[in-house]
Amino acid sequence: MRPDHRQMADHSGQLQAWLNRIWYGQSRWYLLLLPLSWLYRTVIALRRQLYRHGMLHEQRVAVPVIVVGNITVGGTGKTPLTMWLAEQLQQHGYQPGVVTRGYGAQVGPQPLLVSADSDPAAVGDEALVLANRLSCPVVAHPDRVAAANAVVALGADVVIADDGLQHYRLGRDFELAVVDGERGFGNKQHLPAGPLREPISRLDAVANVLVQQGQDAGKVLRRKGDPAELHFRLVPTGLHSLHSDEVVDPHSLAGQTVHALAGIANPQRFFRMLRAWGLQVIEHPLPDHAPISQLDLTFDDNLPVIMTEKDAVKCRQLHTDRCWYVAVAVEFDNGQAHSLLEQLHSRLDH
User: Fold this and answer.
1) What letter would DSSP give residue 163?
2) Which one, 190, 222, 299, 319, has the greatest CB density within 10 A?
3) Alpha carbon 52 to chain centroid, angstroms
């Protein structure tokens, strides 16, 4: 019998797949969910107005705050962008600190400083990826204000909030909204009938809209009055062994058949990337943030198993001699990174 957590993950994956068909397909089932969406939209609009008119109070920390977020459910590339931003700020003399919610983890009552040895069940998979890749403090907690104060106490002179666009209690100085250029805004309905956390007009208030490009990029995202739209891609930097320090060029496996594991919001994007390298992919999608068990890595063959970095951090206690993960880096279109950083430095200096 499969473990209870895996049965729960299976049910979660089925629900997620059903919602994705409604949100991003041609299904008209969303009509049944529209009353709940209207209620959701009313609540979030009221909440935003309460903050705007001072009835609910944002809280400022002692240093500038940059928020990297999105207005849709699911992955858009926020965490890689957060890492890129932290590294760029360090190169320009800043001492950034990163705060993240710790999604899917049991963080506890106090903010947790995340290290490479942290338990992903306690801090979350994305927090662990951030801590593994960055040389600045990373703190996990659902209360972004408490987390931000914690990284400031550790010496940060600028805070980067990974996925904090809707956490209005945390005062911010610079907002970046990230959009999936392949899936766009889906059916443009609010939760649960669609993927929107906030109205598309929310983009009018951010400093920049960053669009992750892909094979099917080109959906109409811009509207009259939107902020400047910048384009980036997630570029693979290598296949890393989970069993050793070996790193290989992904193209070196061209023509081979592999098992591909992806516990992310849009597994198909990952599978398409592997196929673009010439790999024959056997797909194993999992729900976003799903725990990984040995059963997920065990197959009746000796084929390589390739996964995302977010999944790899959950496999440290497992047998992984045939397992690899893909590391990615952010790459902007010509000159756009410089433009973004100039705008950010100007705001921080001010």
Assistant:
1) T
2) 190
3) 27
Q: Phi then psi for 99, rounded to 5 degrees?
A: -120, 145
Which of 224 and 282 is assigned the larger pLDDT?
282
Helix (H) or strand (E) holding 345, with range, is: helix 336-349
What confidence score (pLDDT) does residue 18 get? 83
Residues 149 and 228 in one domain: yes
104 located within any domain: yes
Structure tokens at 220: 């109409």
Tell whether 224 and 149 lie within a shared domain. yes
232 three-state secondary structure: strand
Q: Whole domain around residue 319: which residue ranges?
A: 234-330
Buried b (16+ CB within 10 A) or exposed e, 41-73: beebeeebeeeeeeeeeeeebebbbbbbbbbbb
Q: Is residue 7 scored above 90 in pLDDT?
A: no
Which CATH number is 311's domain given? 3.40.50
Residues 222 and 127 in one domain: yes
Q: Write down the mean pLDDT value for the chain.
A: 90
The per-residue pLDDT for 2 is 43
Per-residue pLDDT for 10 more than 90? no
Q: Are residues 167 and 261 in the same domain?
A: no
* Structure-token pair, residue 257: 């058949």
Q: Of 171, 205, 233, which marks where a domain is finished?
A: 233
State how far the Cα of 272 lies from the Cα of 269, in Å rounded to an integer. 5
pLDDT tens, 109-150? 999 999 999 999 899 999 999 999 999 999 999 999 999 999
Does any domain span residue 71?
yes
Q: What's the rounded Cα separation, in Å, for the pair 164 and 145?
A: 10
At which residue do the structure tokens 């992903």 appear?
120
Report how many domains make up the chain: 2
- Looking at residue 43, its pLDDT comes to 97
Side-chain half-sphere exposure of 49, counting CA atoms within 13 A:
6
Q: What are φ and ψ of residue 100, in 5° steps?
A: -145, 155
Nearest to 284 by CA among 18, 11, 10, 75: 10
